[in-house]
Every structure is written in structure tokens, then in C-alpha cells.
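Last lecture ended with a question: if I hand you only a sequence, what can you say about the shape of the protein? Today we answer it with a concrete record. The protein is Cilia and flagella associated protein 73. Below, first the input exactly as provided, then the predicted structure, then a couple of comments.
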Amino acid sequence: MAVPWKDYFRLALQEKQSTKLPEQAEHYFPPVLRLLEKRQELVDADQALQTQKQVFHTKMAALKQRWEQLEQKERELKGSFISFDKFFQDSEARRNRALRRAAEERNQAGRREAEALRLRAQLEELRREHARLQRRLQRLEPCARLLEQALELLPGFQDVPELVARFDGLAETQAVLRLRERELLAEQEAVRARLQRLRDAWPDELLAHGQRRAQLQERLEAARERTLQWESKWIQIQDTAAEKTLLLGRSRMAVLNLFQLVCQHQGQPPALDIEDTEGQLEQVKLFMQDLSAMLAGLGQTEPAAPAS
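The predicted structure:
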């Protein structure tokens, strides 16, 4: 399978350069350092291109040899199938295995072809990157000459990187000071705004506290009135409870006296406890019922006697 040399070298150069280029932020390096770095990258890319050419020659020779071996194996398999018909079963199995291996080899060849296409794309990308870097090198060339002239006027610096580093340090310090100045101004504005808000809110807050104090005072007076009312009610409840207790005591004494009279009338000693008021009242009730029945019976017998 033939692969165009030009595309292959382009892809190989792109892959080599992609592995060697450092992933750093472009704005971090000064222009002169980036110029020197891009020059070195171009030299490395040329060397990588030569290396990839040799690797490509080796791979293509190995691939061609492998294809010849595969073709030879297929011819041997076909001859074996014709010559050894009596060993059909074994030959068929061996042929199937050989075909599988051949299919695997073809798959590998397809993968190699895909790899070659990828390398071509990488080489094309490297060429575009090379052109871009070349254009940028041309744009930065006047800056490099200007820095060299400035270095001649400043004997305190040994080389251009030292001068650029000094300039970057001063620029970074200036940026830090400007940022700090903006932060201080923002803090000052925030403090002024807060002070103004406090001044504006002070009368309203004082009025709100006064209203809150008046509301709390009214609630306190209402609570005192409710307290006096409940104290008056509690005294009334205590007085009513005392009256009820006295009435209950009198009622229990009256029931006890009635129970004792009933027991005396019946000629029996009291059989209930003194505190058993309900039992005493039940006994008095039974006695009153018996007495009422007896009086009712006497009332019926008295009118019958004169009639006889």
C-alpha cells in the first residue's frame, strides 16, 4: 500500500513537535524569549522530520515484506488444498486458521493505514504551525533588534533575557500596586456608603425603637390589668371554695346525725365509718322509705276499722 512521502513527513513532523512543545501560557513569556524558543522549535522540527523519514522507510519496507509473506502463504495454502485432497478435513481446518491470520494481518494493515493518515494530518498541522511561527518571527524581528539596542545603552544588564526579566518584574509590581490602589478605593467607597446608610437610617431606627417601647409599655399595662383580674377571680374562687367546704362539712354532720338517730331508733350500733357519708345517706334513705311505707300502711288500715 503506497503512502505519499510528503503527507507522511508532514504528519510525522506534527506528531514530533506536539510532543516537544511545552504547554505554557503564551502571555507568560516575553516576545524575545518566545522568538528564541520558536527558532529552537524549528530546528527540532527539522531534525524530527529527518528521523521520521528514516522510520517511515523502515515501516514501509517491513510492510512490503509482510505483504509478500502473506501472498506466499496464500499460494502455499491453495497448493496444499489441491495437492492433499485426501486430508480434506485437516487441510480445511489449517486453511481456516491461515485465513483468520490473514484477516488479522489485513486488519493490522488497515490500522497502519489509518495511522499513516493520522500522521499525514499531523504533518499538515505542523506545516501550518511552522508557517504561523515563521510569520510571527518576522513580526517580532524588529522588537529583537530594539531590545539589543536598548541593551547596548544599559551596561548594567548582561543579556536580553535579564533586561526583559527586569522589565517584567517592574510591570508586575506596577500591576500589583494598581490593583491594591483599586481595592483601597473600593473599600473607602464601601465605608462611605455604609456611614451614609447609618446616618440615613438613624432617625428611622430611633423612631422605630420609640414605637416599640410604647407598644411594650401598653402590653405591660394590659398584662398588669389581666393580672389584677385573675387575682380577683382567684380570691373569689377561694372564697367560693371555702363556702362550699363549710357547706359540705355541715351536710356531712347533718347526715351523720341522721344516721345516728336511725341507728338509735333501730337499736343498732353504727356499722359504717364516720367518713362514709354516702353509705350513711343510703341507710337514712332506706329508713325513710321503710317509714313511709309503714305510714302508708297505717293510713289504709285506719279507715277500714270504722266500716266494720
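Comments.
1. The helical segments are 5-20, 31-83, 88-153, 160-266, 277-307.
2. The longest helix spans residues 160-266.
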